[in-house]
Amino acid sequence: MIKNMIVIAGLILLASCNHGDERPNILVLMSDNQYWEHLGVNGDHSVRTPHIDSVARKGTRFQHAFCAAPSCTPSRAAFLTGQDIWRLEEGANLWGTLPAKFKTYVDLLEESGYSAGFQGKGWGPGEYGPGGRSRNPGGNKYDSFEAFLKKASADKPWTYWFSSRHPHRPFQQGAGAASGIDPGKIKLPSYLPDTDSVRSDIADYYAAVESFDTEVGEILRTLKEKGQYDNTVIVICSDNGWQMPRGLANLYDFGSRVPLIISYAGWSQQERVLEDFVNLYDLAPTFLDLAQTPIPGEFTAKSLLPLLLSDKEAGRVDASRDAVFMARERHAYARKSGEGYPGRAIRTDGFLYIRNYEPGRWPAGDPPLYGDVDAHMLHYSSPTKVEVIQSEKRPDSIFFRLAFAKRPAEELYDLAKDKDQLHNLADDRNYTVQKEKLVQRLDAYLLQTGDPRATGGPVIWDTAPYYNDRDKSPRPDATYRKLLELDSLYQYN
């Protein structure tokens, strides 16, 4: 009852902002492949993100935000639809489609009177036509935020999704050092080798993160110049983790944990840091709540509005938000006949449990290209991936095994002792009780939400169309062909 009163009070505040339609605008600023920790405000001292940090210091920063899938297309599909990826049919795959029967928050906001648009990738990569759509699921595409504002109706609220290409690979080589980032001061995760090449590559990634921050600053400046800052809810996030070995396309934190900041001038301007476990797809019902629009019953996500309107400044607001569930199906076309590497996971404060349904497959894609990591065809610069591939020749190196070697059917990590999730305890008898609890909770959730891998329904993802034929016949870059002794052409079909 108290929470409902808080929500109603917040909506009354929101209703005081506009003329005509009195609901708030919603602005989403999304980076492409960024790990949650890589922001100045989140404690990274090598990357400079002043514009994002300034928004965080006047809003709510979520320290346990995750994506529904560590892969661009399904993560964005879940974000738009408020549903777990296994409910979205072909929408669970990279380079797939999102069937039109799955309504997006954009569709629903437009139906309720909002103007809507997006810039950049939006939903994708994929083909929306085969799913029965006439446009990108993200809405109508614009070249710039200013162009959208010129077209948007002055007496209607709007929602706009700026979808940056940064910091997606390829990075501009040498950009990190050129911008003044010191590779020697970068804090390396223990799953990557400490070499000059890797440090320089991460510095270039940081430079790309800083480019995203610059874009955020430009859009916020436009928002203020147009006099719309005070009546706009601002969301800053990423679609999935960073594009490094053991990152993107992996259910470890480095592929699934993302930054999430939400700010609005009508709420408290005091910085809040919350520990509730949230998922990017929780934004869909949140936006509908903000717009006073009914949330469809098929949504599996939950609105964040009760958390945002809570007067708690730090810690956990909702005790039930103590875990998040994630999944992956097919990422890049990186195995014979287009097979994926399916998995499900549950992440809590203390543990990460992962179930790998096909442990006989190569988790990072078939050798020698390992196409689920970095440059999937080794067709552009990917220094860290190449460094790790070369480390296979060093018998004392663990980096190749961590990134590319086959994995068991179950993985369990004790996060209090193993922050980087390197030591699998699934077969350790000292953790039997903890593992069984996580398994039971994961299974219950998968059954409750109708996952075909749990219910015995049709599993379509290995055979679903992949709408980028070029990836099925990869041609590695000539430099890498020589360095790694690769063939000039590979055939996955």
- Mean of residue pLDDT? 94
Instruction: Identify the overall geometry.
Output: globular
CATH superfamily of the largest domain: Alkaline Phosphatase, subunit A
- The secondary structure category is alpha/beta
List low-confidence stretches.
1-19
Topology-level CATH name of the largest domain: Alkaline Phosphatase, subunit A
**What Rg is obtained from the alpha carbons, in whole angstroms?**
22 Å
Topology as a string of helices (H) and strands (E): HEHEHHEHEHHEHEEHHEEEEHHEHHH
Q: Helix content range of the residues, please?
A: 25-40%
Taking the sheet with the most strands, its summary is: 8 strands, mixed
What does this entry look like structurally?
- The longest helix has 30 residues.
- Strand 10 and strand 11 form a beta hairpin.
- This protein has an 8-stranded mixed β-sheet with strand order 3-4-1-5-6-2-7-8, with helices on both faces.
- It has 2 domains: 321 residues, Alkaline Phosphatase, subunit A; 160 residues, 2-Layer Sandwich (Arylsulfatase, C-terminal domain).
- The protein is 28% helix and 14% strand.
- It contains 15 helices and 12 strands.
- The chain starts with a helix and ends in a 9-residue tail after the last helix.
- It has 493 residues and is an alpha/beta fold.
- The N terminus is likely disordered.
- It is globular and about 65 Å long.
